[in-house]
Write a structure and sequence with these properties.
The chain is an alpha/beta fold and 565 residues long. Helix content is 55%, strand content 9%.
């Protein structure tokens, strides 16, 4: 399908393609190399002879790069200046308004953010038409304002607009549509449209699974018997009871309201020129979960993994690649506020209670799709606390829990609490660097530190309000543990951990009333045990044996208990 590309007007820009800085900046921006793009635009802005039109465009472009790099204060300054200089009704004004709107949401000023988003949408709709598919990020910001203010009727209308535009641009099976439908499904639940929400979520889950299926098939492209590989992978990825049939769930709802001529035509898109940069939704190109399945082995069980603070789903890559060889599938999910969620106006904020609900919803879907195999929860640090909370609230969804360093009892906790309190009093929404301190306490391995801090998917900055949310959640770990009466649990703690106190983890273990529980102290281990490839073969073999003995036995005991009743 060929897209229809639109420019703001047919007049030539104030610069030409011979301008090397523009060429470099434009090439870098559309490849999402925002640092290089920003540096190149900064070079342009050194020219004192720039006219007002080009200067305003340069300023908004630099602010877009800064926003993508989460350099919020720089983005605030540049977008404000661009907004003053921009011609009324121009794309430059619309794009500057969008950056300002995003900053206002971060500041908690959704009423003002709404006005900015509405202004930007009005300008672009007038210049490029209502069905310009690149309006989707603007409508998503507007919908976020509605959702934050609990105006669910308007939120539904705007999120549906996002879904329709993403459908036009990316097609029915892309992750962009899945993200839009996930937001729409959450609003439908608030409106008590439970069945519609369930239908939309089935499509969300299908699209995310499909991306992982395509990736794994590519990894096995040289294997013989490709038909057998495809059939086995479909069984592993979508479950044994027809999850693959959910491919078209909710699509009629999405397409309803899109004019026939729009559906039949190529999508209308903004041209990829210097005059058309806008703040895109980075992260929407990938699913918030990473799956590992070996289609050459029968599926013995499924592990759902939850990462720690600052990390993301990729932290379990090494463990997933290793355990799939033993016949277990592993799906690692991003937690709200991290990984692929970082560019969403709503879910970019750490909210651990909402994260628990997210994973419970995923587990419920998986339990329906995989009724005959055990489901095991694995979590480390923050993730270890989350999986314990799920086991305490929804024991019927999981067959076993592996929780590593789940305690909120931390070294230097008073110093951190004092720092957070001061920041909270001054600006509770302003993010500051906490990751560097966490990394230094978590490991003395310089290579691991460099990898951790250098990975662009990692999140190193949190706001005081988010850190309070984190600590309040972690403080309830012992209370949650007292409710785990049936699910087998094994807890791991590194005795060389300089971040989490071993005695705090021991207290959680002691609070679990279920007698089918184990705790392993590893003298040589630091904070990370299962993430970032920090496990060794001894640890791996130990946990594998525990899974084989506990999870499988527990899963097959359930039907017998049900029949006995």
């Amino acid at each position: 399908m060929i897209a229809l590309l639109l420019s703001q007007n047919l007049a030539l820009p104030a610069y030409t393609q011979s301008n090397q800085a523009v060429d470099v900046a434009n090439h870098a921006f559309w490849k999402r190399d925002y640092k290089t793009a920003k540096d190149s635009v900064s070079q342009l802005l050194l020219d004192s002879k720039l006219d007002v039109k080009l200067r305003s465009r340069c300023l908004v472009n630099r602010s877009i790069c800064e926003a993508q790099l989460e350099q919020w204060e720089e983005a605030r300054k540049d977008s404000a200046e661009a907004l003053k200089l921009a011609a009324p009704g121009s794309l430059t004004e619309a794009d500057a308004a969008m950056v300002q709107a995003r900053l206002l949401i971060l500041d908690g000023k959704t009423d003002k953010a709404r006005l900015m988003y509405e202004k930007a949408i009005g300008i672009i709709s007038k210049l490029q038409g209502k069905w310009c598919a690149d309006l989707a990020p603007f409508y998503e910001g507007l919908a976020a304002c509605d959702l934050i203010e609990k105006n669910y009727i308007e939120a539904e209308r705007n999120y549906r607009e996002v879904a329709q535009l993403d459908f036009l641009k990316y097609g029915p099976d892309d992750t962009h549509l899945a993200w839009a439908l996930m937001s729409l499904a959450s609003v439908e639940r608030q409106l008590n449209r439970v069945e519609l929400a369930k239908t939309l979520f089935k499509k969300v889950f299908w699209n995310f699974r499909h991306q992982n299926e395509e990736r794994i098939r590519g990894e096995h492209k040289d294997d013989p018997n490709q038909d057998d590989i495809a059939q086995a992978l479909r069984h592993h990825m979508y479950g044994t009871v027809g999850g693959y049939r959910n491919q078209n769930c909710g699509l009629d709802f999405v397409k309803d309201g899109i004019p026939a001529e729009v559906l039949a035509a190529a999508p209308v898109l903004r041209e990829k020129t210097f005059d058309n940069w806008f703040k895109e939704r980075v992260g929407r190109e990938r699913a918030p979960g990473l799956a590992f399945f070996n289609p050459n082995r029968p599926l013995k069980g499924l592990i759902v993994a939850v990462h720690g603070l600052g990390l993301y789903s990729g932290a379990y890559t090494a463990f997933g690649e290793r355990i799939q060889k033993e016949g277990y599938g592993l799906v690692s999910f991003d937690v709200r506020g991290f990984g692929s969620y970082r560019n969403d106006e709503v879910t970019q904020k750490l909210d651990l209670l909402a994260a628990v609900s997210d994973i419970q919803r995923i587990l419920s879907e998986m339990r329906s799709d995989y009724p005959e195999i055990p489901l095991i929860l694995l979590g480390e640090s923050m993730g270890g606390a989350i999986v314990l909370r799920i086991a305490s609230e929804s024991p019927g969804l999981v067959d076993a829990v592996i929780s590593s360093v789940p305690s909120g009892s931390r070294y230097q906790a008073r110093k951190t609490a004092f720092k957070v309190a001061l920041k909270f009093l001054n600006q509770k929404h302003e993010q500051f660097d906490v990751g560097s301190t966490v990394v230094k306490q978590a490991t003395a391995d310089m290579d691991l530190r460099d990898m951790w801090e250098g990975d662009s998917q990692m999140r190193m900055k949190l706001s005081p309000s988010e850190l309070l949310n984190f600590q309040n959640f972690m403080s309830d770990n012992v209370k949650a543990a007292t409710k785990i009466s049936k699910t087998p649990v094994i807890i791991f703690q590194g005795f060389s951990d300089n971040l989490v106190k071993p005695m705090g983890t021991l207290a959680i273990y002691q609070a679990i009333p279920n007698k089918d529980k184990d705790m392993i102290f590893i003298g040589r281990a630091e904070h990370l045990i299962f993430e970032e490839g920090q496990f060794d073969e001894v640890i791996f073999r130990g946990v594998l044996e525990w899974i084989n003995r506990h999870a499988v036995a527990h899963a097959f005991a359930k039907p017998a208990q049900a029949n006995a009743k």
